[in-house]
Every structure is written in structure tokens, then in C-alpha cells.
Amino acid sequence: MTPARRIVTLPPTLLGPDAVHFARGCQRRGADVLEIRTDLHAPDAVDAAALADVLPLLVSERGKPLPPAWVAAAWRVDRDLMDATGQQGSLDAPSGKLLASHHADRQLTTDEALALWSRELPSDALVKHVEPMKDPAHVSVLLETQRRLGERFGVSRVTVLGMGAVALPARAVLARNNLLDYVAAGGSWVAAPGQRLLDDAVREWKGADRTTLPAPLRLGIFGTSITHSRSPRIHRQPFDRIDLPEDGPVEAVLDSLVPHYGGFAVTSPFKLRLAKHTGSSLDAINTLVRRGSRWESFNTDTEGARKVLERLDAKDVIVLGDGGATSALRTVAAERGQALRVLRRADIQGPVTGAVVWTWPDRVAPPDSLRFERARVAVIAYGAPGRRIAAEITRRGGTPVLLGAAWFVAQARRQRQLWETAT
């Protein structure tokens, strides 16, 4: 089995030579196709021929007509089955270049979706069907739509996509049998909500056995603002970065993925919510392992907490914040006979002294009243978030101790062992 062609869309802010530089960078990172769209770029804003010299070019008509120079340089020409008024759209394209697409405005049943594709298409046209996803369980419908469209047009011609805040794991599952995989290059701009990162999609296929059937059970991580997470780099593939809003329906997403995933890592802010949802006896969890049709929950953060408390080597420890990480610290401190005092935001009055563990994620602003005096403050985040927290600790008078990597590696080793037992 071959991977879907990875398509990256040119951001609207990149023009002329900058667009070519972007294309070269994406090619080096493993992109297969570059898309340019008429709603994002004016006809003379980019040199289509120069872009096509770097990567095969997909030119997409979105509300404004396609410039002839774009069509001439294109590998494929994306035209909508329906125009903005709901009438049949033009499918004119040079021979062998048509990508016929339909972008639904609501979730459809499979029968409703197939009814849209009754129009006669050239035998060499590709087919792309896109639907919004508000209900995470809609992944099962999209998979059936993908299968039925494959029967009609041939599996080598079909792409089915979900779109929306909860769509990423569905897109990852669908990509296994899609021709095209629309992915995000990274940074703050994405062409559509729910896209995986290019680097994650490439990593999935590096060194993979493409003949393996059925596909190996996927793994993933749930969290908010987790583009920095190293989990996709160190755990076995396929491994998906499922970034949801803090108030997102993580419980419903988790339930919808039982047939497709063998396990998950769980990070802030979902450790307490998913402990409750899975009926765990623990206050907070960071690991889920599939057991048939249900999830079994664990907290391997205790391994990380043990490393941190050993390194601080203090009889009394103050913890800033009372989330999922604090639950693991409480457990280990009790085992080690260390006194643990938890300070919530409202508890902070005077300067904090002694051995401290900072558990707030860097996206959460610390209270204005927080100051340190002769304090060694363990940072359990890593990467750029860890560095930002360390700078904040220094600014407030403390001495940061960077222990995020030690915490992460210790808990990840145990996660790996647990996921090997998934059934």
C-alpha cells in the first residue's frame, strides 16, 4: 500500500519568490503536491510555472475563475461539482487534469453523499468529497462513503475528507485509503480545520511496512496547543497529534475512535476529564489502552513525578497548580514520605520559597501576585513552552530547574509498555 499524496496549500501571505521558497521547503520535508487557490491568490501574485518546477501543482477554483496560466502549469485542476448557487459547476479541464470535488455544507448520510455523484465524469478524473464534522462519530459514515465511492469510481481515484475542530483523527484514518491527504505545513495558518501536520503525516510512512494489512492500530495524543509535543517523534507509528480546544468534546471524540486506535496519551487539560469519563479510580490519567470495545486508563505520570521529586531532593515541596500532574506528584510524595503543599492561584499571597514544582501550562498566565524568594522551581514542561516558563520564573525571582524532558521520558517508557498490551 502506498501513502496518500501529501498536499500542502500555499498560504495567502506568500507571493512571488517567497511562494517558491515555501514550495522548496515543503518538498524537502516530504510534501508531494502544492495547492494554489483562487480565493487565496490573485492571478499575478504567484508564478505557477515556477511553482510547478518544484512540486506538482494542484490549482483549485474557489469562487473566482482559474487563470489560464495556472491551468497550463497544473498537475490537476480542482473544480466544484456545484457552484455557489447550487447549480452544476463547470468541470472543464484539460484531458487527464480534472479533480472533481464536492464540498457539502452539512454532514450527510452515505446515500445522500453518493446521490451527489450521479453526474458523469471523465474516466481519468479524480474524485474528492468533503463534509463538515460536528459529530465525532460521523467518522464511521465517512468511511462507508469512502468505500462506496471507491466501488463506483475505483479506489485509486477517490479522496474523502472531514473538516472541523474534531476532524483530525477521522482524516488520519481516512488517509489510509485516500488518494490525497491535505496537510498543514505548520505555523499559525491552516487551509482547513482538522488538517494534520505535514511532518506527522510524513513520519507515519517513514520505514513503515506498506504491505501490512490490516493497518496497525493507531496511537495518538489528546491535548490543547500540543504542536510542541515530542510524543509523535518517539512512539511507534502511526501516531496522531489530536489538538482540541480546551472546551472541546474530547469524551465524544475518544468514544468514536475505539475501532481505530490502540491507545492514547493524554495531556493538559484533559487528564481529569478523561479519568472521570472512563470511570477510572484515579483522579487524573495520562494513558489509555484499548481493551476490546472499551478503554482502560493509567497514570504513568507517576514515573515522571518520581524523577522530579528525586532531583529536587527536598523534604518539603510546594506545587503550583492542582491539575493532572499534581495528582501524580501527590501519589509519589506519599510513597517517598515527602510533604507536599499545593498552592492554587487564589492561595498565593507572599513570596514562594524552597523547592517548588510549576505545573501550569505556559498558555495559562500565572497570577500577578506570584513572586519567588530563594526558590528552586522545577519546570515539567519541555521544549519552547518549558523555556518560556523558565524565563517567567527567572523574571519573578526564582531559579528554574528544567526537568520536563526527564519527566516526559520516564512516563513515556511506561506508556510504550502499556500500549503493547492493547487488544
From TrEMBL:
One of the record's GO molecular function terms: shikimate 3-dehydrogenase (NADP+) activity
Protein known as: Shikimate dehydrogenase
Domain of life: Bacteria
InterPro entries from the UniProt entry: Aminoacid_DH-like_N_sf, Shikimate_DH_fam
Organism the protein comes from: Myxococcus fulvus
A biological process term (GO) from this entry: chorismate biosynthetic process
